[in-house]
């Protein structure tokens, strides 16, 4: 089999999605509201969701592992989230005050209890806005002009962090001294010139680069797990914490993917390390738009309007829907569900059972797939080499993984091609067994008619 034969089957089985996409692409740029949503020959058009499942406009049902890019930690329309959002809307009588309301402080208390690195927080509407604001705080605090970020790490769709997320190999330089390569046409060159790119999990190189560039580096921003599923060595994280403190560089953990997913307290709880600032998003909104910046008082308070009458001395932060009651109510319902004894551990257990099953099937069918991840997130890699650094992912046989994705979709499993897998409280043994069945059928098909 090859990708075109798989795409042919995909298309033949989804005439309604194909026809819809044909229409959509004329009036929505590329037919999608976000470039990452596209895949060839066309993305599936969904019309309904039900707990752990998605239903497309051709009537196919899939166990959903995309979960709105990991946001839906309790699955689609969990009854407690539905009730919280409906109750809040009817009791408070609005979807947005555009002003402070009591639920904001309830959420803040929950966050401060789960994330000991937080003294204060601010709410935003997305992860993008959270990383943007965290970087602005760092720049204000240090007065320095550059940021350091890791090759392969994603922090949302703003100019300064759209550097070397997915750099073309021939422009990316040596692995121990990566170059900044813009990920978007149109991002002003200023941002490339003010970006320092670090290799994830390579301590010797990071120590050298950061020491050399300390005078200009305001912040190191990082996904504490590369792409949400590749952990760094504990010693790497410990060294980074110590060196950034020593050099006066603000350490920002972008836990938009990993918050409430690696552990309830995020990857910072897993590593036992407190960053200076943290960006959260996804799960903390319970399926509604949100972002959070939390961290140490000395940074957070720079945005306080109580600080100074002189506007130029306050870090500006605002947003029409910041802290809107529906996102906060849904997020609070999610956190309270997950804090019940055993609730989070059960999702981790189901994730581990699924991973073990996939790994065993890959062995049984003698196919080079392995799972990699922590907590409730993992990915299926088409390589048997260990993956510790971003560039190790070059050994991943993307086309083979893509072939698996097309087969899985035909067998009722969706993570979006080449995407990681996230689990939720709605993924019970029934969904796990159905997914393993889909993997078995897909692996058997790959064995019978090998991928070329
Ligand atoms: C680590 C990380 N940071 C930031 C973002 C951006 O969040 P949003 O899509 O809510 O803007 C994402 C989104 O996937 C992310 O994974």
Automatic annotation (TrEMBL):
Its cofactor is pyridoxal 5'-phosphate. CDD domains: OAT_like. InterPro entries: Aminotrans_3 (IPR005814), Aminotrans_3_PPA_site (IPR049704), PyrdxlP-dep_Trfase (IPR015424), PyrdxlP-dep_Trfase_major (IPR015421), PyrdxlP-dep_Trfase_small (IPR015422). It comes from the Bacteria. One of its GO terms (molecular function) is pyridoxal phosphate binding. Keywords: Pyridoxal phosphate. Belongs to the class-III pyridoxal-phosphate-dependent aminotransferase family. This is Glutamate-1-semialdehyde 2,1-aminomutase. It comes from Brevibacillus reuszeri. The gene is hemL_1.
